[in-house]
Write a structure and sequence with these properties.
By secondary structure, this protein is an alpha/beta fold. Helix content is 41%, strand content 14%. A hairpin with a 2-residue loop joins strand 1 and strand 2. The longest helix has 23 residues. The chain starts with 7 loop residues before the first helix and ends in a 7-residue tail after the last helix. Bound molecules: pyridoxal-5'-phosphate. Pyridoxal-5'-phosphate binds next to helix 6.
Length: 458
């Protein structure tokens, strides 16, 4: 295999270490476009094929062991293959995976979500986070009778059409082709953390909803200021627009009840995903009963057709997923897993900042809760709550490590650590010793980058 001129020796070392993954990748390319099943998993020179995941660790098909910080794209707050969750799934299997009817376990799942999440007076399950945000937009539009939606630069809400612009610059261009312009016509993209822009956009009285990742865009890469969140709450209330927190990532991490619990800012609607399903595919739309009532049919067929939303979805609240969700949320409910995962992420951030300082590298580890990030460059002011250059700081943070992100991950994999690009999540089963080992692996990975001549004068 020819080595990439950019990645050079690191790519060669990675390729030499992973012949079986390479073989499977070549086979997969013949049947799956680009040989990958999720665009985030695209990786040079080829992605790893993973054989098993348990606790905080995973193993690839070439026999390497890794400390894992992908954690199922953030789903495994309790770590992989948690025995209690696995047992709950196994206990449901003999009774069937799908009831074609309502189930007590599904009811228990909804009750748990209602008890744990402040906004959740009422709960509807979906099969993914993206479906939950899609339903949220429909509910907000039906409730208000308006169509315009405000979203923010860098904020990701799944891959469906209405939320496709404003994810990457240029902001007005959707993240992919294949979307009819009409589907985008009612989406207004604003810079984050600028309350004046929201005030102006709401002034016309035609905005149905404001949706955001309350921790910050791209799973908190570009942090949202909490004071701004409270202002958004007030402005949307005054304008009669629905405020939607997309807590697919932040739910159960910032606090058991998510950002809304931590900040005391309760949205009208919130979306959940990932952790809520205990690791099986799931999402949920939760919210104020009065707003969620647009999902209640009235029996008046004419009125229902005009004013009520039917919700379909073969896999909604299927009992095997509900069993996993109930088991996971039952463990999470007392706050201990969230507290431990947050503590481990604090330890990791502190350790990484020490490593960067010791290496004389202008880089920063940041993030809130068990969601951690790294950025290569001088510390942007936004990270300290200074919003004076928020838009420019946001664009810098979204760059992460730029072209060095790929070699950094290669070097970390060679050191036994798997991160999501230059960031990741911690779980309640990462130990302090594993975090220390990760910090040491980062130090060695940086030394590898330096030895490969990739850090230049940095
Ligand atoms: C904030 C946010 N919302 C929605 C989604 C979509 O969730 P899913 O991948 O379950 O459709 C994601 C996915 O990562 C996300 O990060």
């Amino acid at each position: 295999m020819a080595s990439s001129p950019v990645l050079g020796s690191l790519a060669d070392a990675y390729a030499r270490a992973n012949p079986r993954s390479h073989e499977l990748y070549k086979r997969q390319q013949e049947v799956v476009p680009l040989g990958i099943t999720h665009s985030t998993r695209l990786f040079e020179p080829f992605p790893l094929f993973i054989r098993a995941c348990r606790g905080a660790r995973k193993w690839d098909v070439d026999g390497h062991e890794y400390l894992d910080y992908w954690l199922g794209h953030g789903s495994f707050l309790l770590g992989h293959a948690h025995p209690v969750v696995n047992e709950a799934i196994a206990a449901q299997l003999p009774d069937g995976m799908h009831a074609g009817g309502e189930t007590e376990i599904g009811l228990r799942w909804a009750e748990l979500v209602r008890d744990l999440v402040p906004a959740a007076e009422s709960v509807r399950f979906t099969s993914s986070g993206g479906e939950a945000t899609q339903l949220a937009l429909r509910v907000a539009r039906a409730y208000t009778g308006r169509t315009k939606a405000i979203k923010f630069r860098h904020h990701f809400h799944g891959w469906h059409d209405a939320v496709a612009p404003g994810v990457y610059p240029p902001w007005e261009v959707p993240m992919a082709p294949g979307i009819a312009p009409g589907a985008l016509a009612d989406t207004i993209v604003l810079p984050g953390n600028e309350i004046g822009a929201v005030r102006a956009a709401l002034a016309g009285g035609d905005v149905a909803l404001v949706i955001l990742e309350p921790g910050g865009g791209f799973s908190d890469t570009v942090p949202t200021d909490f004071g701004y969140l409270a202002e958004l709450r007030q402005l949307t209330r005054e304008a009669g627009a629905i405020l939607i927190f997309d807590e697919v990532v932040t739910g159960f991490r910032y606090a058991v009840g998510g950002v809304q619990e931590l900040t005391g800012v309760t949205p009208d609607l919130a979306t959940l995903g990932k952790v809520v399903g205990g690791g099986l595919p799931a999402g949920a739309l939760v919210g104020r009963a009065e707003v969620m009532a647009v999902l209640d049919t009235t029996g008046d067929r004419g009125r229902d057709r005009r004013e009520r939303i039917p919700q379909y979805g073969t896999w909604n609240a299927m009992p095997v997923v509900a069993a996993a969700g109930v088991a996971a949320l039952g463990l999470i409910a007392d706050g201990e897993p969230t507290r431990i995962a947050n503590e481990r992420a604090d330890q990791l951030r502190d350790g990484l900042n020490e490593v960067f300082a010791a290496a004389g590298l202008a880089a920063v580890a940041y993030g809130r809760s068990s969601i951690w990030k790294t950025y290569l460059g001088e510390r942007p002011r936004l990270l300290d709550g200074d919003l004076s250059a928020a838009a420019a700081d946001g664009e810098r943070l979204a760059q992460g490590w730029g072209a060095l992100g790929e070699p950094l991950r290669q070097a970390l994999l060679l050191e036994g650590v798997d991160v999501m690009r230059t960031q990741g999540f911690t779980s309640a089963v990462h130990t302090e010793a594993e975090i220390d080992a990760t910090v040491e692996a980062f130090a060695r990975a940086i030394a590898r980058l330096r030895a490969a001549g990739l850090l230049g004068e940095r």
